[in-house]
Amino acid sequence: MSDSVAARIGESLTQILGADYHERGINASGGNVQRSRLNHRLAALEMRRQENIEEVISMAYLVGGEENADEDAPELDDDWLARFVGHAQEISNPVMLSVWGQILAHEAQTPGRFSLGTLDVLSSMTGMDWLTWKQASKLCFPTGYILKLGARNDFDEFGLSREDIARLQALDLVQQTDDLSVTFHAPSKGLTFDFAGADLVVRHPKSTLFTLPAYRITGVARELFIHLDCVSADMGYLQALGKALRADSYDFRLHKAA
Question: Engineered SS bond to 244: which of 113, 150, 168, 216, CB 3.0-4.6 Å?
């Protein structure tokens, strides 16, 4: 185990770059020594990139399997594929390797599902970022919102803190506005919110306009939510949402979708 910052830097870089980057090694100067480190670095980096690309492709084969591709869809776009490979070669985190494999498999099945912007956002995400997004997706309403629990700006008991939301905002998965409200038209004074795996039926004795506080997820987040395997909605969250609405004179019923 590293016993100093310098030792940790040296061990980490030596492992990644394929030459001696410990403090004693980096102080060994001279053209031949540096040229040797250069050659090792180029070889190590390109080998790592190749391994990452091939791991993503292997993941895509596992996800896609023998599923039929959309016969009416065009071939994979060359520019999209070039951007994909450019990002994928830098990914080595096991969680994100799996995500990139899923992206490639689904895009190959029906080209056009994922925009270049979505690839750019994914390239900036860590494995922890992805797990945070997966937690947030349990609270998402498919039209593009995370409905708040009253005036609160967090969902701590459901695994999504205010800091998590701020991180998702920085990643362009949740819009920056914290005081947004969304209005739904309910001619019969009742609406069914069809979450993933559950229906929340909300009624109001007087109003036909339901104005609810919410976060809005971005277009990139919607692509990820719709096209990747999404998890079922958190039933505890939906129960808490119904109770929060009841405080504003709404009534609610909650049941798992058929």
Answer: 150
Closest to 139 measured CA to CA, from 123, 157, 121: 157
Output DSSP code: residue 254: E
pTM for the full predicted model: 0.83
Question: CA-to-CA distance for 248 and 155, rounded, in angstroms?
Answer: 19
Starting at the earlier edge strand, list the strands of the sheet with 181-185. 145-147, 209-216, 181-185
pLDDT tens for 175-221 read 988 778 899 998 999 999 999 889 999 999 999 999 999 999 999 99
Please name which of 209, 140, 211 lies closest in space to residue 173, comparing C-alpha atoms: 140
In order, the DSSP letters of 155-210 are: BGGGTB-HHHHHHHHHTTSB-S-SS-EEEEE-TTSEEEEEETTEEEEEE-SS-SEE
